[in-house]
Amino acid sequence: MSRLALAPLPLAGLFRVQRQPLVDERGFFARLFCANELAGAGWTAPIAQINHSYTALHGTVRGMHYQKPPHSEMKLVSCLRGEVWDVAVDLRHGSPTFLHWHAERLSADNGHALLIPPGFAHGFQALTDHAELLYCHSAAHAPGAEAGLHPADPRLAIAWPLPVGPLSPRDAGQPGMSEEFEGVRL
Questions:
Q1: 135 part of the active site
Q2: Residue 150 lies in a domain
Q3: Structure letter (DSSP) for residue 171
Q4: Which of 35, 37, 41, 63 is a Cys-bridge partner for 4, taking CB atoms 3.0 to 4.6 Å apart?
Q5: What pLDDT shows up at residue 175?
Q6: Does residue 66 have an active-site annotation?
Q7: In the chain, what's the furthest Cα-to-Cα distance?
Q8: pLDDT of residue 2
Q9: What is the pTM assigned to this prediction?
Q10: What gap in Å lies between CA 110 and CA 156, rounded to an integer?
């Protein structure tokens, strides 16, 4: 029996993952990751890295981050505590949805996760205080390949649901996207 239901989203390769927990009077058991169940959505690599983030204040935005080839990665993002508005932006060169974004509410209560393919930037806004995320990555972090977009870049026009709260110096310092930006060539 499948414990992860995959729903394709409007940007090719992007999926909402709905956990199917086993629930009884003691609580629940939920699968966070299964290579066999995610293979149909494109996850073919082993997990190379798992990260955990904590965001103290609602309104805080983290992102928009990605790794350049050859270190591009697939991510499975899950919310373990609180609620976030999770955003993926298609940066794939030649994609019909180039620079389009899609957002999903991820929460500890709804059990949704976002499966983000290589060639996408990722970020989120905490909708509650004390939000925690767990990220499974198909490639290890490569400092020389890290890149990002400013979360308020007018070319992206991401409609953040809350006023944008604190940004890290790294995120605040991301330049605006130039008209010459042609995307990520995978």
A1: yes
A2: yes
A3: H
A4: 37
A5: 85
A6: no
A7: 57
A8: 82
A9: 0.95
A10: 27
Q: Name 98's Cβ contacts closer than 8 Å, sequence gap at least 6.
A: 90, 91, 92, 183
| Active-site residue identified among 58, 65, 71, 100 | 65
Domain with 103 in it: what CATH number? 2.60.120.10
Q: Which amino acid, one-letter code, is at 87?
A: V
User: CA 136: distance to chain centroid?
Assistant: 10
Among candidates 38, 5, 40, which has minimal Cα distance to 19? 5
Identify whether 64 is part of a domain. yes
In the set 52, 93, 135, 137, the catalytic residue is 135
Q: How many structural domains compose the chain?
A: 1
Which of the residues in the chain have pLDDT under 70? 1
Helix H or strand E segment including 68: none
The answer to whether the CB of 174 falls within 8 A of the CB of 148 is yes
- How far apart, in Å, are the Cα atoms of 92 and each of 27, 72, 98? 41, 11, 6
In a domain, residue 21? The reply is yes
Give a yes or no: residue 52 inside a domain: yes
What's the domain range around 144? Answer: 4-172
HSE, side-chain direction, 13 A CA sphere, residue 15: 21
